[in-house]
Design a protein that fits this description.
148 residues; elongated; mainly alpha; 6 helices
């Protein structure tokens, strides 16, 4: 046993510029997070100042959306900082957005354009997040791959 510590493996792209696909995925995640904050704040303010059917439900829904916004916002920050852990929360956010987009598309209202936009953003972000360039920039190795 040696007293030396083995250095942490470095990614090939860790010192170069951030790949455009990684930046785009971070921006999409941040936009989703901001949309959740805005939606939650709107519901919260409307519930407190308006005349909702159930004030407690409006406040709970608004606070819930604001808290849920933390996941994509933290993931976006991690993606911008090239943190390998950040891809998991970002992917989970996109997977959770797909059923929401589908439900919005089933509505007979102004929610349909929102469902289309959310679906496009979620699928685009998923494609960007599983891209090989993004994976390499985050230092994520595939299963069974030895340290290089």
């Amino acid at each position: 046993m040696s007293a030396e510590q083995t250095p942490a493996p470095e990614t090939l792209d860790s010192t170069g510029p951030r790949p455009l696909r990684l930046t785009a995925a971070a921006v999409l995640a941040a936009l989703e997070g901001l949309a959740l904050v805005v939606g939650g704040a709107f519901i919260l303010v409307r519930g407190m100042t308006g005349d909702p059917d159930d004030r407690q439900q409006a406040v709970t829904g608004g606070v819930t959306l604001i808290v849920l916004a933390l996941l994509p916002l933290l993931a976006a920050r991690g993606l911008l900082g090239r943190r390998g852990w950040s891809r998991g929360p970002a992917v989970i956010t996109q997977i959770m957005a797909l059923p929401v987009a589908f439900n919005l598309l089933q509505a007979d209202s102004m929610a349909i354009p929102g469902g289309i936009a959310l679906g496009v953003v979620a699928v685009t972000a998923l494609v960007l997040l599983v891209n090989q360039e993004t994976t390499r920039a985050l230092g994520i190795r595939g299963p069974g791959r030895a340290q290089e």
